[in-house]
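New here. Invent one.

***
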Amino acid sequence: MQTEAQLRKTLKRLKLSGMLTTLPDRLAFSRKEKLDYTEFLELILGDEAQRRDQVSVQTRLRNAGFEEECTLEGFDWSADIRFDKARLNDLFGLHFIERRENIILTGPVGVGKTFLACALGHSACRAGYRVLFTRADAMLKSLAQSRADNSFDRQLRHFLNPDLLVIDDFGLRKLSGHASSDFYELVIERHMRSSSIVTSNRDVEEWAALFDEPLLAQSALDRFCHRAHQFVIEGDSYRKRMAPGARNHTGDSTGKE
């Protein structure tokens, strides 16, 4: 008992107390398999490394701020929507983040844009990248409010720091002068440094008209779109497949816009 108490104390001091969960089973296994000291040490340290990896993934997912858990595995590829599925599926290899490229998903309401954007973000979290999900209106509102208490630079860094920024529902309304400037600054600062995913109900050709200042629009969009994989998604509402009773007509499915 004294040895066990001392062991717990030592592991806690070394921030390894998580090993106590699997230690009894690993001790029994090592005796049965007659593992030597090195093999036993590799076994329990492997458990700890795996546990820490899982905790890190959960922390990144929590910090990303996704509204729902959307994954590639959970996407219903049988849905009646049309886009280059093979090309998008290839992006789940996440090489676009390594190359600091962007993704644009456009199409009507309900065709799965947000689900796919968040699924890419979820994959990035699992791969060790820092991800942040935000609604475009909420992001621009928070930047506008930060001007009131002189915290604009800190708030802007909040959106600049992630390896992948997912901006949902861009272009729901015309941008004010400050919003145009803030979006421009965000794009310029992230250009060639990190990746972004933008979803929108509007075609990319309509985006310039949303800005208060045409020159800002041209400069920001030229940089962003030049390095973006663009997808136009068409078809029936993907969201309708989640409505009560929809399973009776479309089969099992999960997702949102």
Residues 37-64 form the longest helix (28 residues). DSSP finds eleven helices and seven strands in the chain.
